[in-house]
Each structure stands twice: as structure tokens, then as C-alpha cells.
Design goal:
globular, mainly alpha, 12 helices, 0% strand, 2 domains
Length: 261
């Protein structure tokens, strides 16, 4: 296969197929381990793979090497962090709830309910990257703003994850609430950083003329705030951890801000 033998749409669909193909061995591993939450380790690769495939199959613009490299760093860090965090742990409670709701036969249902769905969602999130990678449009001011926001989000998210990992690794802090560092200003600074990554990617795509790809950061924002992120994690945490209720009172949920007194 040579660059130029595919249209951007055809290459993007090949990228979707590659994501689905990656989901299948991940699903098999989850069935063997009875742990569907391992899909989170693959999530970043469901997003990186489609634009990487497009860059191989169509003549790519000057944005391609920079974006592919930056997003590869993001994917390696996030995937590695999740794998390290979940080592030796049981299935995440979110996936335990999905498992319970979809019995009997969850092992088979998880192929499309969990792994196939995340492969498709990852492909949709990757649309700004696909559009930017394939565009021959010249660089503009939005590219600089977008790349700055993307890198800022990546670093912000990495710092937040590192602070939380260190906090959890200290036995003396068990049962306490992390309210220092970035976590003093937001209850979910890692999710805020993640959101910045995808709005930054969209700005780069917009500079390349792909304004329509705004569905990607909108989808990611909804997922982080209303679906698998803030809303789900905090559904009953105030009941399980009374100290967290006070943390909620004084600290912004998402956007960093000065804590309330």
C-alpha cells in the first residue's frame, strides 16, 4: 500500500478497522482475566492508531509528524499510568457494575458493549487528528494556540496523575483526601488536562479547515463530565468518604479555581 492510493475517508476507515482489530485481543485477554477494565489501558491507542494509519496511507501535511509524535507521547504516558495503577487490582468498580447489569453472557456482550464501543469512540475522538494530519493547509495562529493547549493539557494531566499516585502510595494517608498540589484547585485536574488536550487538537484541526471535527472535543468533554468521569466517580463518594463531602464543598469539580473558605 502506497501513500496516495487511499482517500482520507478510506484511510480513516482503515484506521477504524485497526482500532477494532486491536480491541479483539484486548477483549480476549479480559475474558481470560475476568477483568473488562483492562480496556482503559488500550483507550489511548484506540485514539492514536487511526491518525497514524492515515499518515501512512495518504500524503500527509507538515502537521503530521509533530501531531503523531505528541499524541504518541500522550498515549504512552496514559496507557502506562493506567497499567501501573491497576496492577494487582480487581476489576474497576465501574466495569463491575456494567458486568452485573449485563448478565448472563457478559463475557460475549463485552466485546461490543465495552471493547467495540471504545474502539469506535476512540476513532471519533481522533477525527481532529485525522483531519490535521491529512491537510496540506499552511500553518496559522490557531496551530500555535492548539499545540500550546495540547501540550499544556498533557503536562497538567501528567502532573495531576503523579501527585495522586504519590498520595495513594503513602500508607499514612489512607482514607484521607488529596487536596494539595493541583488537587487543591480542582477535584479532577487530570480530567481537566485531558479535556485541554482534545480542545487543543481541535484548534489545530480548525486551522487546517476541519471545523466540523468539533464533535471530538465535545464528546470527550461529555464523557469526562457526565459519563465515565466526574459524575460516575462522585456518584456516591460523599456517602462512602465523609471527608470528601467537605472537599466537594470547597473545591471546583473540573475547572481549576481558588478554593472556597
Amino acid at each position: 500500500m502506497n501513500a496516495g492510493s487511499f482517500t482520507v475517508l478510506q484511510a480513516a476507515l482503515v484506521g477504524l478497522g485497526a482500532g477494532v482489530a486491536l480491541a479483539i485481543p484486548a477483549w480476549i485477554a479480559s475474558v481470560i482475566r475476568r477483568d473488562a477494565s483492562i480496556v482503559d489501558t488500550f483507550w489511548s491507542w484506540f485514539i492514536w492508531l487511526p491518525p497514524a494509519i492515515v499518515a501512512l496511507l495518504v500524503p500527509s501535511g507538515s502537521r503530521a509528524p509533530i501531531l503523531i509524535a505528541i499524541v504518541a507521547l500522550w498515549a504512552i504516558r496514559l496507557s502506562g499510568h493506567i497499567a501501573w495503577r491497576s496492577r494487582g487490582q480487581p476489576e474497576d468498580h465501574r466495569y463491575q457494575a456494567i458486568r452485573q447489569r449485563n448478565q448472563p453472557g457478559f463475557a460475549w456482550k463485552s466485546l461490543y458493549l465495552v471493547f467495540g464501543l471504545q474502539a469506535v469512540l476512540g476513532w471519533i475522538v481522533s477525527w481532529p487528528l485525522i483531519a490535521a494530519v491529512a491537510s496540506p493547509a499552511p500553518w496559522g495562529m490557531l496551530d500555535a494556540l492548539g499545540l500550546a493547549l495540547l501540550v499544556f493539557g498533557l503536562v497538567f494531566e501528567a502532573i495531576a496523575d503523579t501527585q495522586l499516585a504519590r498520595f495513594r502510595a503513602d500508607p499514612s494517608r489512607r482514607g484521607r483526601v488529596l487536596d494539595q498540589g493541583l488537587w487543591r484547585y480542582s477535584r479532577h485536574p487530570n480530567y481537566f488536562g485531558e479535556c485541554c488536550v482534545w480542545w487543543g487538537a481541535w484548534l489545530v484541526a480548525a486551522s487546517a479547515g476541519a471545523w466540523w471535527s468539533v464533535l471530538s472535543p465535545l464528546l470527550m468533554t461529555v464523557l469526562l463530565l457526565r459519563v465515565s468521569g466526574v459524575a460516575l466517580l462522585e456518584k456516591d463518594i460523599g456517602e462512602r468518604r465523609p471527608a470528601y463531602a467537605e472537599y466537594i464543598r470547597r473545591t471546583n469539580a473540573f475547572f481549576p479555581g481558588r478554593p472556597a473558605q
